[in-house]
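User: Fold this one for me? It's Amino acid--[acyl-carrier-protein] ligase 1.
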Amino acid sequence: MSTPSATTPSVAGLRSPGPGLITLDPVHTALLRGLDTLLTGLAARLSAPEVTGPPLLAADGLARLDYFRNFPHLGVSAGRFAPDAHDSLAAGQAPGGRPLEPTGYLLPSATCYGLLLSLEGTDVGEEGLRISAAGRCFRNETHYDGLRRLWGFHMREVVYLGTKEGAVEHLERGGEFIQETAGLLGLDLTRATADDPFYDKGGSRARLMALDPVKHEYSAPDGTAIASVNRHRNFFGERLDIRAGSHGPAYSACVAFGLERWVHAMLRAHGGPERALDRLRAATD
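Assistant: Here's what I get for Amino acid--[acyl-carrier-protein] ligase 1.
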């Protein structure tokens, strides 16, 4: 990992081409990539091979997972220009205001959805399955705030499918890794229960969440949640007919890292990108 040399053309630190959109300069990019490399240590520790998820998700598939019921505001739809607009666009006319045709697909708002949908109808076996992936994710938000809240961002996840006990162990080891890694990087994180209506059926989801939390977040001192551990129970196993051998519908769990938010936490903790990069180097040497 290297800092750009003195001959590298000057690039503004954080450039915004639009709301919720940021271009990272070479130093911030090195920081993001270095953090992702460090965070893949959880996948190595848990023997979770790297896979690449799909860039689009079928709306019908997400609907079967209660995505729109739980997160109606987050979805970013993939549209395309209608054929009758092609000639005018090719002639140089502005695209603004021209209608888009729905494709039936959305951009991912979390990495795990595409992985889980890809496993529909499979049996992960008695020993279960672990996989890891990083991807671009997109969310409609009520507001955007630097690296803390973006329209598009990178998310790394380590996903487990198997037994109930295996899911609990996965999250315990994931939580230990988060705190251990934060310590190496000089980050002070607080763990707290999240209030997302995460994969709970029925009208009493909020009450059930209070009695049996399924998501915990790890937040920096300014309140930015940079990682989470998520217990899905056997929701995905039942909805997608994913089995764990003789154990029946698979239980699942995931550990998630928002990479730009880790960059944000490092900048706040160490006073700037160069110092943050030096601390990252020290942690990985």
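One thing worth pointing out: Residues 1 and 281 are 8 Å apart (CA to CA).
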